[in-house]
């Protein structure tokens, strides 16, 4: 069984000392905190900083990142 892109992102960031927490409200996935700091920005949503969309095809989950460059720019802002 392969891991999702989201799980790989979280694991890889944890290996370099960046701990992120995510929340989901189907089909949106929000970045809620970075290293314990709550993310206050909103992007592509009224409720939080959206980093990805979960697929809607039954039995075939996939994830599509919205704009990974902007996400990493936000992460850099919160860890500095």
Give an overview of the whole structure:
With 80 residues, the chain is α+β, with helices and mostly antiparallel strands. The protein has one domain (5-79). The chain is built from 2 helices and 5 strands; from the N terminus they run αβββββα. Strands 1, 2, 3, 4 and 5 form a 5-stranded antiparallel beta sheet that branches. The model has no long low-confidence stretch (mean pLDDT 87).
Topology:
Blueprint: H1 5-15, E1 20-25, E2 28-34, E3 37-38, E4 49-54, E5 63-65, H2 68-79
Antiparallel strand pairs: 1-2, 2-3, 2-4, 4-5
Rg on CA atoms, Å: 13 Å
Major sheet size, sense and barrel closure: 5 strands, antiparallel
User: In angstroms, what separates the terminal alpha carbons?
Assistant: 36 Å
- How would the global form be characterised? globular
Along the chain, the helix and strand elements come as: HEEEEEH
Low-confidence stretches: none
Percentage of residues in strands: 25-35%
Put the structure in a nutshell.
The protein contains two helices and five strands, in the order H-E-E-E-E-E-H. It is of the alpha+beta class and 80 residues long.
């Amino acid at each position: 069984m392969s891991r999702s892109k989201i799980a790989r992102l979280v694991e890889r960031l944890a290996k370099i000392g960046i701990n992120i927490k995510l929340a989901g409200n189907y089909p949106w996935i929000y970045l809620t905190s970075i290293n314990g700091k709550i993310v206050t920005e909103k992007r592509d949503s009224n409720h939080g900083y959206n980093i990805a969309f979960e697929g809607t095809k039954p039995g075939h989950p996939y994830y599509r990142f919205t704009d990974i460059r902007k996400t990493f720019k936000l992460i850099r802002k919160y860890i500095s």
